[in-house]
## 1
Amino acid sequence: MRIRVEGRCALNGVYRPSGNGNAAQALLAAALLTDAPITLRNIPRTLSTQAMLDLAERLGAQLTWLGAQAVTVTAPQLAQRKLTQVDTASVAALLFAAPILVRRQFARIEFDFPLNRIRTHLEALRDLGIDVVNSSGAVELRAATWGRREVWLTQASVTATAIVMMLAARLGKETIVRHAACEPHLQDLAALLVAMGARIEGAGSNVLHIYGTDALGGADVTVGPDHIETASIAAIAAMSGGRVRIDGIRRANLGLIAKIYWRLGISMDMDEATAFIPRHEALTVSNREEDVDSSVETAPWPGFPSDLVALATVFATQARGTSLIHEKLFNNRLLFVDKLMA
């Protein structure tokens, strides 16, 4: 696919970000934990979300669309207990292991990647008492119930945290999860599980206290706005010299991002649901003494997201002043920098 972009045009107007794709994927998996109907609103129609919708249908879910971005998911029963190599080409598909275990008590996950890629996930399952058996190119899981369990995640993995949350909401009486990931999409997942009948304390923090229930019911929830998309539009508007109002945001998800942007010369004026990006005649790195050679370092949430480090690098090249960019989570995020120099 070839995309042609004509630049040097200021972006002006009103923008509304789409729903958080990572949240939508987790909520779709959680919808299969019960046979009651779950309505999800503000679903982004991305390729990755569509792949999860297709997989949910193959597993036995019935999808009833209530417009372009709202769907009711009903899963009277799950038709299969296996995720194939094709399914697990996307790591998000692993989320369906939770409803399969809950509803069918056994799951087989086939994969075509090194097993250490999901080491954190498997360790967490073992900590919950789930029987984990590794075979050639697959992992077989057998469900277990528990009274009280405490799980320490060796990495703050979003997918591992989501799987543990879903299993704990249905199979455990009381579960404590430490070093949990706490991204906005996991907060959306917690909100859905609570609406379905579970009790969760600490959502949005690194320690979760989950009280499960014998049966999860139906719910109607809205997928939160994509904070990465919001921050990207804000940066592009500022770099282009435009003025943009972004509606439908969640200010709490943008606080640190706005602080880092300010140090790099981009101003975001926000209230709880709206962000305004004024016209920037020029971008200038903060000249406060403590901000000399301003440093941007990625970190797990609520740190500065790795998904924005490439964009931050680009607009740092357009700002007066020196900025130091450190990518500490993924080793290939900044491989494009030589193209900027070219």
Note: The longest strand covers residues 146-152.
## 2
Amino acid sequence: MRFLKHLIIALVSLATLVVAGAGALLWWGSVWLETPGPLTEARTVLLPRGTGVAGITRELADAGAIDQPAVFRAAVVLLDVQTRLKAGEYRVEPGQSPSDIIDMLVEGRVVLHRLTLPEGITLRAAWEAVAGDDLLSGDMPPMEGFAEGALLPETYTYTRGDDRGALIRRMKAAMDKALDEAWAARRPDLPLSTPEEMLILASIVERETGIPDERPLVAGVFVNRLKRGMRLQSDPTVIYGLSEGTGRIDRGITRSDLGNAHDWNTYEIDGLPKTPIALPGRAALMAVAQPAETDALYFVADGTGGHVFARTLAEHNANVAKWRRIERERRRAAKAAAGD
């Protein structure tokens, strides 16, 4: 009887120690989860699709993001989130705690990359930018299925491995939405019959000036000319036709270029060219929708990066003469500098 009593006491004591030990272990684990992690500088961790808890733990440990892999794995199981950890590319910050890392994986706070399409580039240039981004995956859709001006130039966020075709479709949807909004906000007296015509004119405005305050003025000049039946006489339209859609040539425009008849040469054709000549941004679209009230019919470069506007041909010719003098002075200065 006495032996049985001692045995019971020993078993109760052992159980107490086990419970106390387990409690202490759980307490230590909870403290460790909130302790700043070992990283002293940010590290990127890539977790492919299908990676289980063991693989995720190993990747984090190999990156130096956690120093107790077994405890991390046990915590994931005890928290019952092992099926909620999301694949992707993650940036683990210096000192980021294991608890915050788990939250980050559950919430899917993956690294966001950015791809910017500058305003005024062509469809071909946009295609090359998306195709050349090594962080994207998948084949490009056929460019023939998209018209010039079809994509909205702005900054897009994406995650590593996103599909190129899906990103192109996002860019197309963004332009469709921006064009619909601009068309809905247009002045009722515009000499434009369709959203497509607005897109064409906005692309010309985009290529004519990169100065935000000038876009409505440039749009106003072109609207005035269209209303009067005057040809637009826009140099960027000539360049687009000569460049076969790249929007760039490696020389200046010649007088013979202005007389070279093609579907985009607005010195030779009446009205708008047959397609846009670039990807216009939101500001250019709204500039065409709400052009400045102006009497100007002409503009030319002023030598400072902007333009000077004129109401009459005589004023414009005087401004052109000033610009030609500036060009000659710059050529002389460049030649003198080269001689030195």
Note: The longest helix spans residues 2-34.
## 3
Amino acid sequence: MSDYTDYAQQSSVWAVVSYRAGESSQILGLSTRLELPLEIKKLTYNRWAGPVGLARRVSTAGIDAASLPGPPWPTLIISAGVKNEPVCRWIQAQSGGRTRLVFLGRTWAPRRHFDLVITTPQYRLPREPNIVHNLMTQHGVTSARLAEAKRRWEEFFAGFRRPLIGVLIGGDSGPLAFGERAARRLAGALNALARSMDGSILATTSARTRATAVDELERLLAPDAHVYRWREDDEENPYYGLLAHADRLVVTSDSIAMLSEAVGAGKPVYLFDLAGSPVDATLKSRVYGAMMKLGPQRLSRDLGLFHRRYVEEGFGAWLGSEATAAPTDPEPEIQATVSRVLGLLER
């Protein structure tokens, strides 16, 4: 038995979750699919976390000492985000380089310091041996989890007229913004879709959704529509129940993660275009748009690259278009990614 194999059998996978909910969902989604002993690590950051990450340091300086994990060190770390890079690389160094490091999205430190980077089109990363290029993000929407959510939420969703239109709402992201104008456009499109199908609407918001936009949406949606307002750590959040019970899903175009999870639910998916007119332009979205045109690529994301492939490859259709959305199987890409990660443990 090799030294590394012996080490692997005595250790575990660490999912070092992010300070952003979407990234944490992706980290946990991939980690659980590995079906290996798993520990979830949540860090507490101080004001130096961002600067230390941007400086590409191997350091614990951005982490409060009380939340810093200790040995035995894991066989594998899965994480994401600039604030997590320094401490994850520090853990790898403490293990004598034996801990494999997998990051999602993109990295700020040179990619050669990571065993694997799992990315999606909006980050525009090059083709390199340690980069996995996927269309969709990692997620935990599995058949088992959907079946569990279907059972748990059966009584709640029994009261909705079929077909049920599930709506997943994000918020401001990069050059896109979801404000009152977008809420009015979305409400009109959803009401029209529900009338055409004689169906009903249930929408769920997220941590990034502005309260004023939710107010406008509730004001304009059909009287029998239901809107869930996101609350942190709320066990009554119907998100997975909606994925399991909805007959169709509408997702705002800002969230690559929710668009990926919607495909995992096996339902027809429609994208609501936040770049449509009239647009909710903010100072932040204008600056981001200018940065996309004039600044270095590594400082921005181009969500349009994802949207074009998503639609072209048949995973969804734009809401209001004449195209028909049909369920498309995302499992081949997911399983190929799992195999690639597990292959790191065979070195």
Note: Residues 3-136+334-346 form a domain with the Rossmann fold fold (CATH 3.40.50).
## 4
Amino acid sequence: MYWKLVNKKDWDKVRKDFSDQKKLVEEVTQSISQIEKGDLNIRLSDKMIETKLATSLQLMIKYLLQVREEEESRAWFNKGLSFFLELIRNKDEHSFTVLMDRCLAELVKYVGANQGAVFILKDELQDPYIEMIACYAYDRKKFLDKKQFLGEGLAGQSIIEKDSIYLKSIPTDYVQITSGLGEATPRNVFITPLLINETVVGVIELASFFDFKSKHLDFIKKIAENLASLIRAGNEKVRLEEVLALSQQQTENLRAQEEEMRQNLEEMTAMQEQLARNETELKRRLVELEEALLKEKGSEIQKIREEEKMLLESKLEAQKKSYELIINRLKVKLQQVTINN
């Protein structure tokens, strides 16, 4: 066996290198143990940072941090979405206005914003405009009446372009709602249209002191889709109620006309029956007069009987004409009612 003697200086260097390597191994082992426990807040020593192993370790930690952030964002997204879907699913428990107020308030709080507003599109008229139906700021519902034509403001621009708008460092006078506590106004605003099947039904606007993260923007867009469905369902409900009300009104009008027609028919029938009775009575009296005249020819009484007969005949003819005129008027009225139906 061959032995080589080394001087003390070289031996101390070997021992120091060995000690340094041992410390690095221990540090790596400790770091891996922390990672296994889920603790990614690892600080490496200056010695470790200078090694290739540290570079690999840092890349692994960076990747794990990214994975964790994505998982946390996904969990945050799904939790919020479940809450809002449940809120919307129970829409029949509240009026449309109350439900929109609740959804907006919860959204503002969930994404950490300070203010929010929901506008619905009114495009039935020649000049379409948006109307505010919900407003929330500084933990309170705000009662504002605001209308805006599509060519005005960022909200109208978002609707026209069917696209979101995210602005940072907006002018101080853009947000007009203040907290009343001396706080600064928000400087970031995110506006996104409420779209369903490429049809715009409104727009939502949120303002915040802080920048919106990607997960916030994605979440707001997702909730905007659900709000669009809610608004469309509300619009369809209103239209159905209007159609139902019109149908009920038409039914009531038809019933009133049918009742009027029935009364007119009864009145005409009664008049015809009365006319027949009067005519029968007059004819009977004429027969009696004719028989009396045959018995009293040449006498003064005969003249009186003849005059009475003429009077009865004239009265019968006048009464028939009067009844015929009334009956004709009733027939015309019935025809008008029939045409209207």
Note: DSSP finds seven helices and seven strands in the chain.
